[in-house]
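Job type: complex structure
Entries:
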Amino acid sequence: VGLTERRNEGNFNTAILIDPAGAILLQYSKINLLEVEFPFYGVGDRLAVVRTSLGTLGLDICSDNYLESVHIGKTLACMGAEIILSPSSWTVPYHVTERDEPYADKWTRPLCHIAQYYDTVIVSTTSVGYIVGGPYEGRKMVGKSLAVGPDGVIAEGQFNEFAGELHCFEIPRRQRNLKGTQFGEHARRLGLNFERSVR
Amino acid sequence: LSVIVNGHKCDIEDRTCARCAQDTTVPGITFDAAGVCNFCALHDRLLQAYPAGEAGRAALERIFSRIRRAGSGRKYDCVVGVSGGRDSTYLLWNSVKVWGLRPIAVHFNDGFDNPVAGENMVRAAKALGVELCTITSDWREAKDLKISFLKASVPDLNLGTDLGIATALYQVAYQEGIKYILIGQSFRTEGVKPLSWSYFDGDYLRSVQKLFGTVPLRPFRPSDPGFNLGLKELAFYTVLKRIQAFTPFYYSDYVRKDAEEIIIRELGWVYPGAHYFDDLYHSLIKYVHRVKFNIDLNMNSDSALVRSGQMTRAAARERAHSVYHIEDERVIDLCIKRLGLTRAEFDDYLALPPKTFRDYPTSYRYIRLLRPPIWLAAALNLVPGITYDKYFHCGE
């Protein structure tokens, strides 16, 4: 669940993961805030994962998975997250239609990058609807939530700017034995060039 | 006795048509010796021009043959305008299942879409295997236009959306090289609105926006017309590109109840709550029309149902000038808030003296000069058949 969290030190763009009994398993505040969020939210200061019967789960939020901040997802994967849940509000310009591919570079690419090189799954659900008011006026949200794994897109919602839809799909649990620096070696074996990325 | 017409007191006799439910609050209404109104006479003329039954089926088949021929070898042969309401959903179903056409469904989202209608469109398109293309307005323009028309103090509060629907259909037809647009209108169920209750003119929209708007409208491009559909742009699509608009229900005894049964059964269609309530802004429009202008568009469309035998005159008269149930305060407040207005600002606009399109620069002068070509364009289906009657027989 995504929400605005009020703490003594300010407001935060926060997501929580709740178990069937109602206990909060994870509470995460967004780190890679957009500039338009600066007046409203403070920067989150921690990442966490939780071990559950479904596997080890991690949480991040929307632009935490921008191409320039994939280190957040990678860190969650290195902390053991088999599945990263990422509630989002992906927006597109008003003129995008069902005939366009709105997310190719912006979302599919970084999500697949994290999933492929760090052997994890990312499930990112997004909103639908016409945006009125605020800095995103003139844009809209069109659904097309994504679930990606090391082999690419596992499931994708439909383009829909009118109403939310529930999609059910299975994610097989992966047998992962990677720890610590093994993640980097695994990524290097798959072709990730660290030297180039830090030059 | 005085009657409030378009928000102004008129010293005319308060009178109701002997056949339908319309009364003297309808601008331009006249009565014959038998007490039957000119809108009923227009209905009878349209029945002659667009016969149902065997003649209607033959006329439709001729049109569909042309559509199929023009679309041969192409992905689509026609554009079907959809809103998620009853009429357009039934039109889409007919296009695919009965008439064997290959449509692309086009919807215009102007920011007030009823989610129930939205789900109807997605569900129908999926069930029929039809591509749905949603053209969304730029809210900065759409919002400003809606406020401009409130400031202009005219009844045409939804001209932006109505015009946006038309441009969206032409846009996709142009982009796809499609020559035919199908529209789910029927004079048998909707009637014809008096000109000063609903005046469609892109140049009128531009002049109101120029006078009251704060956001410039983006310029016309054939593949992105936005809110531009004046006489020049209309001529571009209809004369130069020869895109034609048809209203197939004109040629059949379209019965809403029967249509509903079919689309509920075949497409899982859900009633959005009222006619036109696929667009939530109609909640606010109904309110403004009633309290400011004494306009009852339901009386106008109910009268069409009376003429078609789908409603009794007594039932229509009982509903006339009543508060329609979609005038929901919560939805009206939502509309006001969505426009970024306070209730006090909205009430100030409501208190402005009522006006009509005649108080603003429009193309009406040219439209009147173009009477013969418009008659011809309607006869040739270059524009919807009712266009001519709308401009020249409904309170001109």
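Summary: The two ends of chain A are 38 Å apart (CA to CA). Helices of chain A lie at 70-78, 104-117, 181-189, 194-198.
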